[in-house]
Amino acid sequence: MLGSTSSSTGISMSCSPTTKHHVFLSFRGEDTRDNFISHLYAEMARKNIETFIDNRLARGDEILPALYKAIEESMIYVVILSENYASSTWCLEELAKILKCRERYGRHVIPVFYKVDPSDVRNQRKSYAEAFVMHQHRFKDDQLDSWKKALTQVAGLSGWDSLVIRPEHKFIEDIVKDILRKLQLNCSFVSDYQGTIGIDKHIEQIQSLGSSAAYSGGATTANPSSKSIYDFTVKDISGNDVSLSQYCGKVLLIVNVASECGLTKSYYKELNILYEKHKNKGFEILAFPCNQGRSQ
């Protein structure tokens, strides 16, 4: 089951498409693939962050439709701005698409300045200026201007600078922590307001752990500010224990187990009925076992 995203940013948003990936990683392979990118990707995998990464070494000039689709279906974009990033028209097209999705859906973009000065990216100096000297022989001015505007825009966002002295492993850990925080801010909780009993108690539990929530029309959207919010264990429609941390960035339809806490056949039947009822809305169907504390 796939979920849709909710965003707490102030950007004007239209309806977001269903998402498949937590993170889309945009990078220039020849600069970073065999060192920084491999380490960053491994750390994200260790934290169960589902990441789209394009592993093809050879790229033409035209960005593939499948890559556009992956950008549309990702919640957060991490853009690794390295020395030769701007020399790739493919990377520049990726960036332009990413920023359109940021504007349209209110998604987070995290720039990572890898061994480059952010001001050189913002103002297209040094290797970034050299890249556009090369591009100007093949592309029209309006295309060049749109790419320059995209670089200026992404360089103005809050991000991470590798030139600030720190060990690389700490740099990567800080980036991944930032991604996790932003994923937590994208998690929505929706109760089955047509008769679910006891859900408010669990929403209160979530709120008491440090989230700020707004309730309207039977739907509760929680914006967690504490990692412990995701220590809750819930049940999926097969009756398996799952952690809320696995559902960052998704819209959850949360129901409550019967007061006796019996995991009966009728309970699972009811959960599956709810799933059939709501599956086309992009919800994940989960349940809080009653009298539950936080998972250990």
From TrEMBL:
GO terms for molecular function: peroxidase activity. InterPro entries: Glutathione_peroxidase, GPX_AS, Thioredoxin-like_sf, TIR_dom, Toll_tir_struct_dom_sf. GO terms for biological process: response to oxidative stress; signal transduction. Pfam families: GSHPx, TIR. Residues 19-183 form the TIR domain. It comes from the Eukaryota. The keyword Iron does not apply. Keywords: NAD, Oxidoreductase, Peroxidase. Belongs to the glutathione peroxidase family. This is Glutathione peroxidase. It comes from Trifolium subterraneum (Subterranean clover).
